[in-house]
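Narrative progress, year one. The postdoctoral researcher (J.K.) led the effort to move from monomer predictions toward full complexes, under supervision of the PI. The following entry was the first complex the group processed end to end, covering 372 residues in total.
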Amino acid sequence: MNKNTISLGRIFGIPLNVDSSWFLIFALLSWMLASNYYPREFPGWPLWQYWFMGMFTSIFLFVSVLLHELGHSLVARHFHLPVQRITLFVFGGIAQIAGEPPSARAEFWIALAGPIVSFALAALFHLITPLVQGWDALFAFFKYLAFINLILAGFNLIPGFPLDGGRIFRSILWGITKNLRKATFIAANVGRFFAFAFIFLGAMQIIAGHIMDGLWTIFIGLFLESAASSQIQQQEMRTLLVRHKVNEAMNPNFAIVPADSSLQEIVDHHVLGMGRRAVIVVDDGEIAGMLTLHHLKSVSPDKWPQVRVAEVMLPASQMRWVTPDTDLWSALQAMDRDGVNQLPVLQDGKLVGIITRGDLISFLNYLHSLST
Ligand SMILES: [Zn+2]
């Protein structure tokens, strides 16, 4: 877990994190609302009330972003895609959905769900405003939230990948061309076009004397550019990996340990001696499970001599595996889905090797060095 994020528990079972950059935005937005928006709309309040409303409104912006991400997450779940976590950061939020959407239709609905939630919130807050007419603070609060949710929906619908609008655009291209690679390439380049448009617009604002606004627009442009470029790179990596099979990159030199070994024995003979990050556990000649560094770390070192491997390993019933013919991209996707760093390789029920993220990266480097 990134040390810059703070955990806020779970919502619908999905871990919710806040990136430390979000606190900067919280402070900046509270300050802007307290010193600009509220005094302009309602002069004559005491200073504490401006600050109270500023912070109160910022918290509800946070809730609005969270509901937007929850929209994506719950629809993703409906399509059986696991959601690893929701993280709120400087530009809003991100729902980390493991694996690629299974179909163009799934991607379309998952991407559309977020802006639909934001539009619905904007409409709801807009409908509330006339009801609280006369209560200045509440009126201004709902008016602002209606506005900000409309901005949230509108900005996210810009048709440049990886924004929601770009995902919707990609899903439509994907549906028409039946070619995810081509669809991603086009949508991400449209994303880069919008990114450069933002940077250009920011430069214009600076020339016109609006320096802070201009810098902010450029910042958004740079962020979009790097997000779109990394999607193109990821797509290229995918294209490279789907052409190769697990047996080209796996390590046939795996270790098998009996289920009743102690954790200390594993550390002494396999981790320290051989630098292994995972061992396969067997019981009565059958694969019983897999033990990784992650499992080792879950037990305090002074208990290693007493604890048996079988007590902490990942049991075979929960273990996913690949075959030597699985393509490397599917293997990587399987690791992402389960949040693991290695998978056993089985052929006709017999263990023939183990493949790790490290093996995949060195294989990519090897392919790269061949092509340059
Ligand atoms: Zn979204």
